[in-house]
Amino acid sequence: MEINVLNINGQETGRKVELNEAIFGIEPNDHVLYLDVKQYLANQRQGTHKSKERSEISGSTRKLGRQKGGGGARRGDINSPVLVGGGRVFGPKPRDYRFKLNKKVKVLARKSALSYKAQENAIVVVEDFSFEAPKTKEFVNIAKNLKVDGKKMLFVLPETDKNVYLSARNLQRAEVMLASGLNAYKVLNADVLVMTENSLKTIDGILNK
Fold first, then answer.
1. What does the alpha-carbon distance between residue 92 and residue 50 come to, in Å, rounded to a whole number?
2. Same domain (yes/no): 79, 123
3. How many structural domains compose the chain?
4. pLDDT-derived band of residue 73, with 50, 70 and 90 as boundaries?
5. What is the distance between the alpha carbons of residues 73 and 51, in angstroms, rounded to a whole number?
6. In the predicted model, is pLDDT for residue 108 greater than 90?
7. Gene3D superfamilies per the record (predicted)?
8. Which of 67, 96, 125 is the last residue of a domain?
9. Residue 82 belongs to what domain range?
10. Are residues 32 and 112 in the same domain?
11. Are residues 149 and 197 in the same domain?
12. 3-state helix/strand/coil string of the chain
């Protein structure tokens, strides 16, 4: 699949890049995508939730009433889960939600996500660019020139560029990522991928081993 390379003014440069069929042209695997997205979201969880159980609440341990014959549920002390203000039964405890996925599964998930975007014609290739200083206005102008403004944009760069990152940081529907850190969730969550020529080479080197 060939895509025209644009400059930051949205004009065609006359060059074309060939998207690697082994990465952008495979049959997407939905189950692998589900696993990878699930892992990504699970890794974002703090897992610090906690509620007090019966033994952790301060209160008298005196038995409030008879075991039988009261007409209601049996209850012991004032910390009983049956009563308002009592402990919680099987409440949440701090835990780690992270789980492991094999490398091949994660690679297949990224390939599947990129293939979906290629099928949707939601990939824009632009020649490499940089800013001399952080300028949000310049970044907005590039988005308008590329006709991706108003969409949820993911700009993929080959290496860290602080000025580009800072220029996009204040925009709600724009995100800048390194090609080496690309994951299935970020790709699927974006409406359009804006990739530089060198970031495509980086992705080829990582996913086409």
1. 5
2. no
3. 2
4. confident
5. 23
6. yes
7. 3.40.1370.10
8. 96
9. 47-96
10. yes
11. yes
12. CEEEEECCCCCEEEEEEECCHHHHCCCCCHHHHHHHHHHHHHHHCCCCCCCCCHHHCCCCCCCCCCCCCCCCCCCCCCCCCCCCCCCCCCCCCCCCCCCCCCHHHHHHHHHHHHHHHHHCCCEEEECCCCCCCCCHHHHHHHHHHCCCCCCCEEEEECCCCHHHHHHHCCCCCEEEEEHHHCCHHHHHHCCEEEEEHHHHHHHHHHHCC
Q: Is pLDDT of 209 > 80?
A: no
CA distance 84 to 94: 24
| Same-domain pairing of 129 and 145 | yes
Specify the pTM: 0.83
pLDDT in tens, 7-60: 888 888 888 888 989 999 999 999 999 999 999 999 999 999 999 999 999 999
